[in-house]
Each structure stands twice: as structure tokens, then as C-alpha cells.
Amino acid sequence: MKITVVGAGAVGATCADNIVRRELAQEVVLLDIKEGLAEGKSLDIFQTATLLEFDSKIIGSTNDYTKTAGSDVVVITSGIPRKPGMTREELIGINAGIVKTVTTNILEHSPDAIVVVISNPMDTMTYLALQASGLPKNRIIGMGGILDSARFKTYLSLAMNVPPSDLQATVIGGHGDTTMIPLTRLATYSGTPVSEYLSAEALQKVAADTMVGGATLTNLIGTSAWYAPGASGALLVESIVRDQKRIFPCCVYLEGEYGQSDICLGVPVVIGKNGWEKIVDFKLNETEQAAFNKSAEAVRAMNSVLASL
Ligand SMILES: NC(=O)c1ccc[n+]([C@@H]2O[C@H](COP(=O)([O-])OP(=O)(O)OC[C@H]3O[C@@H](n4cnc5c(N)ncnc54)[C@H](O)[C@@H]3O)[C@@H](O)[C@H]2O)c1
Ligand SMILES: O=C(O)C[C@H](O)C(=O)O
């Protein structure tokens, strides 16, 4: 198994680090356009092999795509992150060009790869990667919902004072401050609805905190987050390379599912060796479906900007 991570910045390097620690591939390639960055970070990460006892090799490359040839999975993290006060959507102008070029370069050398898109605005970048590549829809997966769901569980855990790993909670819709939909109705604490532990107001606050989870971190750090994003990317890759068939909310191309078409948006999917293999129907109620439709409207408006770039 061979995995490439494009972008050796904060998210890309953290994702690659998680991938080798979990031994998801014999070979991992970290690639960046900035001279020396990917080589340096890869060497640093590989020097932890004897300390952390993993048996995956990682090498770096400055924009030499021949090194990525034959990759089974490629994770795209290249692109600028937002600064405090910005939305993810404001990154479209610069990141669209980067994601398009990277997708083309990658597929030239790894035509069979499954592509995971992390660069923001992620829903639109996933749609762009699908269009630019012409790949079958199942091989393009946007990562955002896994991260947003992890944040949802974190805020629930803090509010309820219970371990995050005992919580099941999912965020669907777009990966944007106003477009994501934390499904509070379906969240459980080991099978029991969380509404039995939290008041409606408390649950509302958890949902609101989740939606601005990325912005909160960006304001605190000065740039956007990377530990949880990198780990989320690696978890998605793990389900692909180990064919685990885990159900994660991911950004995938919809053709009528959840009432939407010709759009990439976050819905629960089964992830396995073929990429996203099946869309799971959560049977949304009227309010949730209305929120999903509104989210789709916003993402569709952003997708339409692509034509003018
Ligand atoms: N989807 C998510 O859940 C999620 C989570 C966190 C961050 N992000 C997004 O991920 C992206 C990366 O964030 P970051 O914090 O790692 O930023 P960063 O600035 O630390 O790293 C980005 C890297 O991309 C590289 N790069 C730029 N153009 C390139 C090209 N053409 N080819 C190869 N490499 C190129 C840069 O040199 C840089 O090292 C941002 O767009 C950010 O918004 C998404
Ligand atoms: O918040 C951001 O801009 C980065 C990322 O999408 C996140 O949610 O952490």
C-alpha cells in the first residue's frame, strides 16, 4: 500500500504523521511545492519510527510527482488556511487553482488512486476535484464531517462530563460555519438520546459551538487547526486501506440522495477499499431536511463561483 499526502503544512504533515503511526501503508510520500519542506518534515517524522515503533517509511518530495507514482490513496491538503475573521469560503480564489493543478498532477502518476480532499472550502474543492479529474464519483471523498463530528462529541462530552468515546454524534451538510448541521436529535450516549442528559438550551449551545468550532480555534491560534483535522484525515484513510466499512459523514457527490443532485455535500457513507461505497439514509425529519436544503443552496452558490475563476 502506498499513500501520498499533498501539502506538507500543518494539516498535511499531521495527517502523514498519523498515517505512519498507524502503519496504514508501507510507503508514505509527503509532497509540497515549498522547497525542502516536505523532505524536512518527512525526515523528522521518520526519525520517530524507532521511538514510536512503527514500520512505515515516509519520504518527502518538492513537487516531484514521479515519487508519488502508484499511490493507492492521495490526500490533498495543499492550499492556504484562513486567518481570524475570515470564512473558509474566502479561500476559494487561491485554493481552486491549487486543488485543480494538484488533482491533475496526482492522477497522471496514480490513475487508480482514491482521492481525499481536505483543502477549503472543502465542499467546493471536492466538487472541483471530481470535475477536474473525471473520476468515478466513489473515488473522490471530501473530509470535513469526521472533524465536525469529533468536535460535536467533544462539546457534548464537556457539557455532559462523560467520555467522548461513549458518544455517537454526526454532523452532516456543508463544512462551513453556517452550513453544517449537528444532528442533535440522533446523538446518543451509549445508545441513550443525549436529550435525556442535556436541556434543549444546553444542546443548542453544543450545536452552536460545534458549528463555529473551526473559527474558535482559528481565533485562538491565529491560523486554522491541524491536530484534529490531520487525525480525521488519517481515520478516513484507515477505513479505505483496511476496508473497514466504517460509516462516516463525508462530502460526496449526490444524485438525488437526501433530495439533492449535482453537488458534493456531507452525508453518512460507508467507507471501504472502493472509496465511498454506499450512502446511508438517516431519515431526516422536516426541520433537518430543510437545514440540509439550505446548506446545499449555500454550497451550490459557492460552486457556481468556480466558473468565474
Ligand atoms: N476539511 C477540513 O476539515 C480542514 C481542516 C483543517 C484545514 N483545512 C484546510 O486545509 C488546507 C491546509 O491547511 P494548513 O493549516 O495545513 O495550511 P498550511 O499553510 O500549513 O499548509 C498548506 C501547504 O500547502 C502547500 N502548497 C500550496 N500550494 C501547493 C501546491 N500547488 N502543491 C503542493 N503544495 C502546495 C504550501 O506550501 C503549504 O505548505 C487549508 O485550505 C485549510 O483551510 C481543512
Ligand atoms: O476552520 C478552518 O478554516 C479549518 C478547518 O476547516 C477546520 O474546521 O478546522
From TrEMBL:
Keyword Metal-binding: no
Residues of the Lactate/malate dehydrogenase C-terminal domain: 147-300
Its EC number(s): 1.1.1.37
GO aspect biological process, one term: tricarboxylic acid cycle
Recorded catalytic activity of this chain's protein: (S)-malate + NAD(+) = oxaloacetate + NADH + H(+)
Annotated residues for binding of substrate: 82, 88, 120, 151
Protein purpose: Catalyzes the reversible oxidation of malate to oxaloacetate.
UniProt xrefs under PANTHER family: L-2-HYDROXYCARBOXYLATE DEHYDROGENASE (NAD(P)(+)), L-LACTATE DEHYDROGENASE
Protein name: Malate dehydrogenase
